[in-house]
Amino acid sequence: MADTGGRTAQLSIDGKTIDLPVRDGTIGPAVIDVGKLTANGYFTYDPGFVSTASCDSAITYIDGDQGVLLHRGYPIEQLAEQSDYLELCYLLLNGELPSAAAKTTFVDTIKRHTMVHEQLVHLFRGFRRDAHPMAVMCGVTGALSAFYHDSLDITNEQHRRITAHRLIAKMPTLAAMSYKYSIGQPFMYPRNDLDYAANFLYMMFGTPCENYEPNPVIARAMDRIFLLHADHEQNASTSTVRMAGSTGANPFACIAAGIAALWGPAHGGANEAVLTMLNEIGDERHIDKFIKRAKDKDDPFRIMGFGHRVYKNYDPRAKVMQETCREVLGQLGTEDDPILRIAQRLEKIALEDDYFVEKRLYPNVDFYSGIILKAIGIPTELFTVIFATGRTPGWIAHWNEMISGPYKIGRPRQLYLGPPRRDFVPVDRR
Ligand code: CMC
Q1: pLDDT digit string (tens) for 134-162?
Q2: Would the CB of 267 count as within 6 Å of ligand 1?
Q3: What is the CA(262)–ligand 1 centre distance, in A?
């Protein structure tokens, strides 16, 4: 954190003035450090944390007005174009791009951890076949702590590193298992001769009965989907991981908490909600009706995949995703799919509509990822699981960053609006 040269903000209240230090980041808005307000008898009030920085971080930077996303300083567009998912994982975890040798070692290490403990198969069998895969993922990821006791000392850097590798390696295996279980097919063991995304497609769509060779264009698109979801600074799920981690909870439990937070339709569940909405619209002739509903203040309906808390400009990930979307649809020849046609029409209308333009509601990453995943043949219920798989390195990088430095248990306060102190009344006198 840059030196602020003693810059302070003054807060005048009830006849006294409190000096609050101002801190500058490398880039982005300065923050007013309000830590000492408590000692003066006040809390700040910021529901939804719209104006609150909860931590120092050197991992990811977002400028929502300009549509900028940097990981360790590198723009997402360059990473999407020139890098790949595992290299980005290395960057997020270690702070620098790997040398060629370090990259090879990292990729080999991840591959060595792709299998899960065989006993986990029995855990899967305890779930109903029709369980939502995110419910299964919350359960099995949390349960990993019951299988990998040998690396749970959070104060040990080597343990933290092994856990990071295990989580990145095993998430696609668990994700594919949650799918195979839901359709009653046998689980496929990972193939370490394939790269990360191709192996995921193999575990999803391969069967023991015949050869399955992943299509390289689809594997590249899958890798991009993982890459574009890898991190997004202090979003709801990452903040949840940090909050859980701040209690000293083990990392598998923290990531399970992150998965639970991601599940909601306002966050990672939006990609699934996009497809549900497109199916509900059903026909291009109905789009106007849905746009009208989205604008109606008395109707809770929103166009899923539009809008973002931070981006008030085009989400840079959505731009890359849009290109990938065109590539995949071209390769698969599915441009004529009625649902995909509705999506393209909806995008055009919403981008030109005054309501969306004035409120700066642009398509976000989930709008296009949902369309690509549908075209690839990934079932809708699995979309958020894919998001969780891609986001895992970000969650671990943030957890690790917090645990490696000084940190406090996350403990917000509140504005109490309940009854003041009163005496208990025995039941026969009420
Ligand atoms: N459709 C119609 N109106 C919308 C939409 C939408 N998708 N999103 C926001 N608005 C309106 C909202 O009604 C409000 O209007 P008003 O000012 O008149 O009350 C205004 O825009 C601001 O919305 P907000 O809810 O105060 O904004 P927020 O920053 O709290 O919410 C959001 C951001 C992403 C939750 C919201 O835009 C939304 O619900 N979008 C749809 C769900 C979605 O696509 N989520 C994925 C986010 S990207 C992936 C991720 O990072 O998880």
Answers
A1: 999 999 999 999 999 899 999 999 999 99
A2: yes
A3: 16
